[in-house]
Design brief:
alpha+beta
Length: 130
C-alpha cells in the first residue's frame, strides 16, 4: 500500500484484531483499496443462493449451520501447528464458512458462533496416525 497499489489479501486478513487494525489503517492512510480473498462468495452455487435469499423467495433464515469435510491438505508438520500455520483449521477453512454465512444473510446481528474441529484417528498397517 505504501507503493500506492491496491491490495488483495489472502484470508485471513490478520491473526488478531490489532494486526487487522494496522492493515486497515495502512489502506486508509494510503487511500488504497483493500480486499480479503473470500473466494466462496464467487462460486456459482453461492451466488444463486444469495439471489434466492435476497429475493425473499425461500423466506427469512433464522439459523445457519455449515461444515467442511476434507482431507488434511498437507502432510508437512508446520501445517498442523497453529503457531506456524497461522491459526489452525478454523483460520484456514472456518473463516471462509463464517464469511459466506454472514455475506449470504447481509451481515445480520450475530447472537453466537460455535466451532468444532474433528480429528479422526486413521488406522493404517496396524498403526494409528494423527
Amino acid at each position: 500500500m505504501k507503493a500506492k497499489k491496491d491490495v488483495l489479501v489472502e484470508k485471513p486478513l490478520a491473526r488478531s484484531y490489532n494486526e487487522a487494525k494496522h492493515v486497515f489503517a495502512a489502506a486508509k492512510n494510503n487511500k488504497k483499496k483493500l480486499m480479503v480473498g473470500m473466494n466462496l462468495r464467487f462460486r456459482p452455487d453461492a451466488m444463486l443462493l444469495k439471489s434466492l435469499l435476497s429475493s425473499g423467495e425461500i423466506g427469512e433464515p433464522f439459523y445457519v449451520k455449515c461444515g467442511w469435510i476434507r482431507r488434511q491438505s498437507s502432510a508437512q508438520k508446520w501445517f498442523t501447528r497453529k503457531t506456524e500455520s497461522g491459526g489452525g483449521v478454523i483460520f484456514d477453512l472456518g473463516i471462509l464458512l463464517l464469511d459466506l454465512s454472514l455475506w449470504l444473510l447481509d451481515y445480520p446481528s450475530v447472537h453466537s458462533i460455535s466451532t468444532q474441529k474433528f480429528s479422526p484417528q486413521y488406522k493404517r498397517c496396524g498403526r494409528y496416525l494423527n
